[in-house]
Write a structure and sequence with these properties.
The protein is mainly α and 136 residues long. The chain is built from five helices and three strands. The N and C termini lie far apart (97 Å).
């Protein structure tokens, strides 16, 4: 095999592989940004038409009154009430009531003690369950 044949074979192999070139960048679908301090346009829902008459605030207030549930749950208040009981509340009880994970409960209790202004006592029973109680 001559050097010319060897070079031709290597060139053909390189040509088959193709050159290493970055792919073309797709054009941006994002439009131009607004000029600083320019007034913003009014946003509306797709296909919605503005109602003549009642302002949006009144319409929103009417919707919330009609569809509002009778009693809304406040997890923070529930946990504090559980912890104010004489025995306090175990980690498992708080998790079951709120649906939180253990690290969330521990973080909440920590913040309640440090930033919430409550005096939280933490104890472990014989079974090894952690319970939290708010001292009065």
């Amino acid at each position: 095999m001559t050097t010319e044949n060897a070079e031709a074979t290597e060139t053909a192999a390189v040509a088959e592989q193709g050159a290493h070139v970055a792919p073309e960048k797709a054009p941006s679908k994002k439009g131009a940004s607004q000029k600083k301090g320019a007034p913003k346009g009014q946003k509306t829902a797709k296909g919605a038409k503005a109602k003549a008459g009642a302002p949006k605030r009144e319409a929103k207030a009417a919707r919330t009154r009609k569809g509002a549930p009778e009693a809304r749950s406040n997890k923070r208040a529930e946990v504090i009430a559980m912890m104010k009981r004489a025995k306090g509340a175990t980690l498992a009880e708080i998790m079951e009531t709120t649906g939180w994970q253990p690290h969330t409960v521990r973080g909440f209790v920590s913040l309640l003690g440090s930033k919430g202004g409550e005096n939280v006592e933490s104890t472990k029973n014989a079974a090894g369950e952690r319970s939290y109680r708010i001292a009065k």
